[in-house]
Write a structure and sequence with these properties.
heterodimer; A: 371 residues; alpha+beta; three-stranded antiparallel β-sheet; 15 helices; B: 160 residues; alpha/beta; Beta Polymerase, domain 2
Chain lengths: 371, 160
């Protein structure tokens, strides 16, 4: 009688310095051969207690710290926080500032999604080329941010009640040029990648996230929509002036890595539509609510929760004021952390090489996960 | 108004369907006017199930803790993806800040609370009964304090 070969479970600590973990993130993976039998994420390497820092400072002082949450998308972080303070203190935002916010937020989405697609391909072994093309375009967005806010990534640009500086007509012209060129880049990028046999083989049917699990586990953003759930906070809450733009919400069918990749490319095309409409319609006028007191803001006692559709998902802020100049409670609802809740479910039964691809398709930034 | 119901109506629904469940409306003085429901902790889990299954609050977005002088509090922001409405805010309170800090875990109802409740356990010291994997999440194993509490004193810096 021949004995069946038995395999032993092997434990591997993947990260925190592994290049595919997108920062200092670690996974305790248990493997049967190459197959994943359990996966526990380990957090905290980048924890600096962002919330405590913000609670110890004034409302204004927290804005530059929000830049450092998802450090690729400081503009949308600023917006989420500004929106919450505006809700808490009852501040209005002038029209022009609302349009500028939409423009910088959609530019942020373009550079985030381009970078995400580039990194995903990099993780799959397409070394260099896709990421380099994506970063070439991202560079132009960052140049725009630099000329607007003075900083490429840590923009610290929005204020409750408006934005910090106005954009010039020349800046808008440059941004419009970028948008018209970006279409060509997307066509080229998709021609290179979307129909690529290796990309399809590595991503289709991998890391499937069922619709009900996605909702129950609080997955938001492109990851939720890839599972076929029509939920985009720009459409649901109509925050800012998003109700004035015509754009569609792309939805996936299979909820696999390929769909999550496709969501990003399709969303970039929708962002371009929003940007074109914003350039056409942006009105002249003030950029700050004259009633907004930036320094020494003391909102009435109470609380507010507000959220934006950041490129990663639902970025929410929850503030409690006790009437003093600093928030009694300051909370960030980080999409990157909560989207990782289902990482193990998506990876079980797949090969270790697929874990890298699945993690890449969630699109995390550790500055936001660990805070 | 959410889900065609006011918070008062949701509250009386909870009280009529769950005998003994105490629900209190907590008003919010800020212009956001986001009022909330304070649910007694013995009925927290049942109330959460009812909110999810019968009022279609299928999505728990934000779950976080607050340190008040007399007690610790969990705040959950619930939305309905099905009906595209929300938030409905519910709160659960511990008896005090020291020895009776247990609350029911709502992770069995909404898995999105899993990491967020671990965070509240780690940073605030709330113990969640029924949580599948209650461990520290951001601080390291062996750390004993809860740094988000208002009376937390950081250790003196030992390096120059």
């Amino acid at each position: 009688m021949t004995e069946l070969a038995t395999s032993e479970i092997m434990e591997i600590s993947m990260g925190p310095q592994h290049p595919s973990t997108h920062g200092v993130f670690r996974m305790d993976v248990r493997l049967d051969g190459e197959r994943v039998v359990s996966l526990k994420p380990v957090f905290g390497y980048l924890h600096r207690n962002h919330e405590k820092i913000a609670e110890n400072g004034s409302y204004l002082a927290a804005i530059p710290y929000t830049d450092r949450l998802d450090y690729l998308c400081s503009m949308t972080n600023n917006w989420g926080y500004a929106l919450t303070v505006e809700k808490l203190a009852g501040l209005a935002v002038p029209e022009r500032a609302e349009y500028i916010r939409v423009i910088v937020a959609e530019l942020t989405r373009l550079q985030n999604h381009a970078g995400m697609a580039g990194f995903l391909l990099q993780d799959m072994g397409a070394s260099g080329t896709p990421l380099m093309y994506a970063y070439r375009e991202r560079e132009r967005v960052l140049d725009l941010f630099e000329s607007l806010s003075g900083a490429r990534m840590m923009c610290n640009y929005m204020r409750f009640g408006g934005v910090r500086v106005d954009c010039t007509a020349e800046w808008l012209r440059q941004a419009a040029d970028l948008v018209s060129d970006f279409k060509g880049f997307l066509d080229e990028f998709e021609q290179l990648l979307t129909g690529n046999e290796i990309l399809m083989a590595r991503t289709q049917g991998v890391g499937v996230l069922p619709r009900d699990l996605a909702i129950n586990a609080g997955v938001t953003g492109p990851g939720l929509r890839a599972s076929g759930v029509n939920y985009d906070i720009r459409k649901v809450d109509h925050y800012g002036v998003y109700d004035r733009f015509t754009f569609r919400v792309p939805l996936g069918e299979h909820g696999d890595v390929f769909d999550r990749y496709m969501m990003r490319t399709l969303e970039m095309r929708e962002s371009l539509k929003i940007l074109e409409q914003a350039f056409r319609d942006i009105p002249a006028g003030p950029i700050m609510d004259p009633k907004a007191r930036l320094r020494g803001l003391r909102p009435k006692a109470g609380e507010a929760y507000a959220r934006v559709e950041s490129p990663k998902g639902e970025l929410g802020f929850y503030l409690i004021s006790d009437g003093t100049p600093n928030p009694y409670r300051y909370r960030v609802r980080p999409p990157s952390l909560i989207n990782l809740t289902v990482l193990e479910d998506m990876c079980l039964g797949h090969n270790i090489a697929d874990v890298v691809v699945i993690l890449g398709s969630i699109d995390i930034v550790m500055g936001e996960v660990d805070r | 108004m959410t889900l065609g119901l006011t918070l008062g109506e949701i509250s009386s629904r909870l009280q009529s369907e769950l005998p003994g469940c105490q629900v209190e409306l907590v008003t919010n003085g800020s212009p956001s006017a986001q009022n909330s429901l304070l649910i007694d902790r013995q009925h927290g889990l049942e109330a959460a199930r009812l909110l999810r299954d019968e009022l279609q609050l299928d999505y728990c977005s934000n779950a976080t803790a607050v340190d008040w002088p007399q007690y610790l509090e969990m705040v959950y922001h619930l939305f309905s993806i099905e009906k595209k409405e929300g938030p409905v805010v519910i709160r659960l309170r511990t008896a005090n800040r020291t020895d009776d800090v247990t609350l029911p875990s709502l992770t069995p109802v909404w898995r999105s609370a899993e990491f967020q409740e671990r965070e509240a356990f780690d940073l605030y010291g709330i113990v969640f009964a029924g949580h599948p994997d209650l461990r520290r999440i951001l601080m390291w194993e062996g750390f004993t304090d809860h740094p988000m509490r208002k009376d937390y004193v950081p250790p003196p810096e030992d390096e120059p």
